[in-house]
Each structure stands twice: as C-alpha cells, then as structure tokens.
Batch of 4 targets.
Target 1
Amino acid sequence: MYNFKNTQYTGEISICSEGNPFKVIFDTGSANIWMNSARCHDVGCVNHKQYDGSKSSTFKHLGYDLDVEFGTGELIGEINADDVYGGGVEIDGQDFSEIVQESLKQDSMVSLDSLTQPSLLTTSALTSITLSRTSELTLGGWDNDHFEGDLNFHDVSDKYYWLLEADKILVGGKDIGICKRGCKVVSDTGTSLLTGPSDDLMNVIGTFQINI
C-alpha cells in the first residue's frame, strides 16, 4: 500500500477485470465498498476515475438505494455487484456501492457508514494490515516479519465495525488510567487522527514529551 504522509493508506483493487484498477483507501471503519460511478457528475466524482457498469460483462444490477449521512457530508448511492480483484485474490459478484451523488466538505474522508453488505475486508476469512512507512494489506493470513512476540486474538463486540473491548490504555507501557470502567475502541484504518472523549484525549497528549 502507499503511505501518504502517515494519514492515508491506499492501494489498488480492480473491478470487472484485473486490467481495470482503482486506487482506494482500505478502510476497516467502512461497512461498504464505495466506488465513484460514471453516473455521478459532482466535482468529487469527476476528479477521480469512475466505474462504468455499462462497459462490464460481469456487472450485476441489484439496485438497492443507499443514502448515508456523515459528519463530513452525504453520499447517495446504489448497491450493485461485479467481480473484484486485489492482491491475486478474485471475488466473484462482490457487492459494492456506486456513488451517484455526493456532497462532501473539502479534505473530508469517508469512514463509518451504512450497515448493509460485506466489504472486501470482511469477505476474506482473515485480513491483516500493517500501517507504517512500508504498509501492507494481506488477505487470508499475516506476515510474521511485521511484528514481534505473540499474536493475540480478541473478539469483535460489534459485527458491523472492528469494535473491541479494552481494559487499559497504555502509553510507553504504562496505564494512564483513562479506562477504569472499560472502553470501546474501533480499529479504523481510514481515520487519520485519534478520536475520542476530549478529556481523555488531553490526558493522552499530556503524557507525551515533545522536544522542539
């Protein structure tokens, strides 16, 4: 994957054929695959490559309407299906959301959205993502070279999001005491910043030593 200034991690998937690539954000906080449709004429759509189902022999019209509001704007789309390719993996008839209209604020990013169809990341039985200067998405397993020690597994407490139950928040290996009654945390690869209750975040920031 391509690391853009430690804020976005993008890669390529192809739709309808391996020779039709699109650059996407692999976002574990998104419940759908969102693709710019050739039917969308808004600025955010026409400035990026657009998917045209009329040119695909494997396109399947499902026609489920989707209207999702975010803090950053609104997306109106239609759920259809086509073959998806990525990293040597082929998924036949993968559901995805065609964006037919969008209203997004400048520099915004799509994150948590509708709770409908399985995405590429949830279709795979096992997915691992490494976010660093050299970033990598692995479908169907993990790379032992990207971590040290034991690999631990945790139950997901919400089937729609990667929502986990946490006992402690550690900084430098020390419990900073902001999770005494338990916390819910989302492992969201599509969000550029840490988000949470403001008082708790200030406590986290207060533990950092910044040298100028």
Target 2
Amino acid sequence: MSTTAFACLALCIGIVAGLRALTAPMAIAWAARVGWIDVRHTWAAFLAHPVTPWIFTALAIGELVNDQNPKAPARTAAPSFVFRLVSGGFCGAALAASGGRSLVVGIFLGALGAAIGTLGGYHARVRLVRALHVPDSAIALPEDLIAVGGAFLIAAFFRAAVVR
C-alpha cells in the first residue's frame, strides 16, 4: 500500500469518527474480525476477537439513538470533541498497525480527520437544517448512513489496497 493511500484512509476513518465517534471503531473491529485488516500479532489484535465487534456495534447503535435526543450535547462540546479525537486516533493507529505503518502517523491522521469530521459535520448539519427548513433528524439520519457506509467502504478500500 502506498503512503498516500494509507494517509488518505487513516484521515478518512478519522472523519467518520468525527461524524459518529463509535461507528469508526465498530467498522474497524468488524474489518479485523472478517480479515479485511490484519491486526494479528499487533497491539490491536483484540479487535479481531469474536466479541469485540459486537460490543462496538452495541455502543455505536446506542450513539446513533442518543444522537436523536435533542438534549444530547453538541459534538463540538469539549468532552465529545476529545472523545472523537481519541476515537479517530485509535482507528488511525489500528490501520497503521495493520499496514505496518507508523502508529504516531496513524494516530495523528486519524485525530486530524476526527477534528475535520467533527467541525465539518457539525457546520454542515446546522446549515442544512436551516437552509432546508427541516427538523434536525431529517439531516441526522442521512449523516448516520454516510458515517456507517463510509466506515465500511474505508475498511474495504484498505483491504483492497493491502491485497494489491
């Protein structure tokens, strides 16, 4: 896999983490479990354990449900923002471990992507709700689909890039 491909995919999984903090690790755990990413013999080997993807799936579903709650804190609030940075960095590091790349670079790119996804997703959602005069949930649901679909596409692209 080229350095550019790795950098793009680590940044993109971070963007997903910025949109939905637990969707990115869920997709990475499933990718590890089914062998799309090879984390055996790395610090991230636990991601391929049979139970891990299910735990992350339950957490991600909980996040998606909570996102519909009008009282949920904004993703830009400090605790949420930091959690998204950690999630993005974690996912970038897992891809780095799988691809034999620098963990520091993976963490940085994943966290950078998470910052982009958090801020960009927030501003896009607010502007779309205002511009289209629709309830927040009308934008939140498509955003959920983009995050989930995007996360699995990134994992599939990572696998394809490694196989080449």
Target 3
Amino acid sequence: MQRRTFFAQRLAEDQGAIVFVGDSITENWRTLEQDFAALGIKIANRGIGGDTTPNLLYRLREDILSLHPRALVILIGTNDLGEHTPPADIAGNLRELLARIRADYPAIPITWCLVMPRGKHEFTGPIHELNALIGQLARTDRRITLCDTFTPFAIPDGTAKPEDFAPDLLHLNGSGYAVWRTALLPILSSWNLRGAR
C-alpha cells in the first residue's frame, strides 16, 4: 500500500515515461533512472515486491496505464512460480495483461523480459516452461521485443549465477543489474523515443 501511495504521488511527474513493470527485482533497481539517463527519456519504476501476475492485472490501469507510458519493460512471473502456479496459468494471465495494454495503447513498444533463474533446482523446469510460453506470446505482437534475461544469469545446470545475485539467489545484486542493463540498452536505444509521443 505504501508503494502504491508513492506511485499516486508521482502520477503527474511520471507521465510519458518508459515504465518498468514487475516485482521486487524491478523495485530494487535503485539506479534505474541514472542507468538509462543517456536515452534522454523519463524512466518510471512501477515494481512492487511480492507481485504476481494477478496482482499486476489488478493494479495495471491505476499504476501503469494511467501514466500514458511511452513504452513498457515487463518482468513478472517468478513469484507465481514460487506459489507453485502452473506456467500455463501464468501465461494465461500474461495474455490478459497484454490484451489490456493493447486495448489502450495498441502501438507502444514493449520489452518482455524472460523470468530469471533461481537458486533452487525445483524451479528450473517451470522457469524454462514459462519462458517458452513468454516467447510464444512475444511472437504474437510485432511491437514486443523479447529480452533474454535468463541465459546471462544462468549457470549450466539452469540455476542462478551466484556472482550476479544476492545470497538468496533470487534478487539481483549490483553486478546483476549491470548485466540486465547491458541486455536492455540496445533494445531501448533502438526505439528512438526521444521527443516522440
């Protein structure tokens, strides 16, 4: 609730931004605005720790679409897997999320990030399954660019690289955010959004 109150207070200030959407992995990106300052475009962080896809659907209009976003960067789904929600059900929520976005903003570019690896082997199979479904979803919309945020963070067994994660092997550390920025920057730079509306 505190986080959403903060969002409401920034409603006017964050209009027309590239909006980063997600859970604690997004929320904890403390250097987000400065990391993409070279783009010359406003950046708004709308991540909330603990968010699942139903949570995001619930708050989509008020927290995100109300900003008249210029573009979206989406990373969501790992908390659903933590609650043992089947990947197919999560993908259904993601399809609904996309439908609601496109109903209001049919042409804005979206970068959809793959779910990152985790430290426990029990999640490796479900993450691969969900990421395959996210890839299928991305291919249905020519204005979606898929960002591979799995491969750069995974060791050969499919779990998380310790050097890029906090000790819980779920949340990123500073090194991890630098890797994510490296993956995103070419995509966001290619959109040529500076001055466009």
Target 4
Amino acid sequence: MFGVSRSTLLYYDAAGLFSASRRSDSGYRLYSEEDVERLKVIRQLRDLGVPVAKIRKYLTQPGRGTTSILLQRILAINEQIGVLRDQQQAILSLLEAEGLLKDARRTLKKGAVLAREVGISKQNYRQVHRSFEKASPESHRRFLRHLGFSAKEITRLLQEIRKRA
C-alpha cells in the first residue's frame, strides 16, 4: 500500500514509531485502519526528510507541533541549500583557478553527446538550466561563461528558459 519493505516496518517497530495492532494465529502482523493512518503520517514526514526521532516525538502528541516540525525541516533544507551553493561556488572557483575549465568543457561536451545518445532531450537540458538559474543566477551565468557561452548566447538561453517556465 505504501511501498514500504518488511525491513522498514521492522525498523519503525524497533524505533517505537509503528507496530501491528495484533497478530494472526500464524504470527502474521495485522494492521488496523488506525495503524494505516499512522503509517501514512510517518511516510509523509519521512518523505519530507523529517528524522525518525522527531517523528517519534510528534507522534506522542498527534496534531500538535505540525507547524513546528515542518518549519524546522524548511530551515534545515535552506541550510543544506546554502551549503550546496557554497560548494558550487568553490568548485567553480577551483576549476577557474586551476585552469581546469578547458578539460571540464571537453568533458561536458562529451557528456552532452552521451546524454543525447541515451535519450536526454533538449527539454531536460532546459529544466537543468531553469533550476540552476532559479537556485543561483550568478553561479549559473558564471558557469555558462566558463563553458564558453558568449554574453549574447547566455541572454538568449535565459530568455528561452523564462519563456518556457
């Protein structure tokens, strides 16, 4: 029903999140409608990246703290995004400083050929550029310059991805 493996159910049971209401005569776990609803909440929160410990705390007071747990998750995601942007900047700076951009351009061109051969479409490329532009416009433009795009080509690409957004 939720695509959860047996080992995950056992893990949730050991972590104190979820267990079967009862067992059959042959020892199979049986779940009630209440159990199913609880598992639904657990899966939703896990899919959002909420740690098991926070879910356990949340489940002890159902309905209370939903806003808090979700806001904490948003803050954690924002922090992760910041770390990734910093890493992105550091990688671009290192490539530039080490003169590795020529090699990177050749590798990316080979990668583009390979991507087309395995069926990645122009639309997929546009989505990558659209996401990059949204996440970090300055880094995206810098990356495009490093790849050898002219100012005119960058402007044209940005207009195209905005138009199709």
